[in-house]
């Protein structure tokens, strides 16, 4: 499909101080439970260490409780050559402009809207990813129409890994168009080994081509992906 126009603002990632916490060996994770750790903090070094081991954080939902860390037994990933783009989505994409990192905080705020179903992003999560963004590790992919932010997504980019965190839309198909834009950014000479992680496969994501892989397969692919340079549009 013809990609929408793209405006890119990127920063060279800055490595933060290392974490004081250890997540242990993935070989010690419960093979039947997605939840693999509880506690630690959300400092940039801790977050990066977690993603490099295949983990991601979510709040428990109860104020004051420690952070939960997940490494799903069945992981949702989107193969870059297998995204399903309908004719209607192809047509819709022509009406949007894709931008990178031009409104990161606004994207996170929209994803954290408490009025959304199954909202999980709290103030601690928002602050943590804003810090990662300032260091050049977290990015937003945005769909704009008529000069307004219509939808988008955000996630963490480390080498050849893009770990998607959340997405939103204010205009129909806008979040899907942002995902198409992200896939376009990741399709380069290293595309075969890049890893687009979406945490869990939902019916909505399955309709876009997301598949499940086992934890072992995901971790094996992650090790390979982390050896790659980041894509040019995300700090490469």
Automatic annotation (TrEMBL):
Pfam families: Leu_Phe_trans. It is an enzyme of class 2 (transferase). It catalyses: N-terminal L-lysyl-[protein] + L-leucyl-tRNA(Leu) = N-terminal L-leucyl-L-lysyl-[protein] + tRNA(Leu) + H(+); L-phenylalanyl-tRNA(Phe) + an N-terminal L-alpha-aminoacyl-[protein] = an N-terminal L-phenylalanyl-L-alpha-aminoacyl-[protein] + tRNA(Phe); N-terminal L-arginyl-[protein] + L-leucyl-tRNA(Leu) = N-terminal L-leucyl-L-arginyl-[protein] + tRNA(Leu) + H(+). NCBIfam families: aat. This is Leucyl/phenylalanyl-tRNA--protein transferase. It comes from the Bacteria. The gene is aat. Its EC number is 2.3.2.6. Keywords: Acyltransferase, Cytoplasm, Transferase. InterPro entries: Acyl_CoA_acyltransferase, Leu/Phe-tRNA_Trfase, Leu/Phe-tRNA_Trfase_C, Leu/Phe-tRNA_Trfase_N. It is found in: Cytoplasm. Functions in the N-end rule pathway of protein degradation where it conjugates Leu, Phe and, less efficiently, Met from aminoacyl-tRNAs to the N-termini of proteins containing an N-terminal arginine or lysine. Its main location: cytoplasm. Belongs to the L/F-transferase family. The keyword Transcription regulation does not apply. One of its GO terms (molecular function) is transferase activity. The keyword Isomerase does not apply. SUPFAM superfamilies: Acyl-CoA N-acyltransferases (Nat) (SSF55729).
């Amino acid at each position: 499909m013809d990609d929408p126009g793209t405006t890119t603002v990127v920063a060279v990632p800055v490595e933060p101080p290392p974490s004081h916490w250890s997540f242990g060996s993935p070989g010690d994770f419960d093979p039947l439970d997605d939840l693999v750790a509880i506690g630690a903090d959300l400092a940039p070094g801790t977050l990066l260490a977690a993603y490099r081991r295949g983990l991601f954080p979510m709040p428990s939902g109860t104020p004051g409780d420690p952070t939960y860390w997940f490494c799903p037994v069945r992981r949702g990933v989107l193969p870059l050559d297998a995204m399903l783009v309908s004719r209607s989505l192809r047509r819709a994409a022509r009406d949007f402009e894709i931008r990178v990192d031009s409104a990161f905080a606004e994207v996170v705020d929209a994803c954290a809207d408490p009025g959304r179903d199954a909202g999980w992003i709290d103030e601690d999560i928002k602050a943590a990813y804003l810090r990662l963004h300032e260091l050049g590790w977290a990015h937003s992919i945005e769909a704009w129409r008529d000069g307004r932010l219509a939808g988008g997504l955000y996630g963490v980019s480390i080498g050849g890994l893009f770990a998607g965190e959340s997405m939103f839309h204010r205009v129909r198909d806008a979040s899907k168009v942002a995902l198409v834009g992200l896939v376009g950014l990741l399709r380069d000479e290293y595309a075969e080994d890049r890893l687009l992680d979406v945490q869990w496969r939902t019916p909505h994501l399955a309709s876009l081509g997301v598949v499940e892989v086992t934890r072992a397969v995901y971790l094996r692919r992650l090790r390979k992906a982390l050896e790659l340079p980041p894509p040019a549009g995300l700090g490469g």
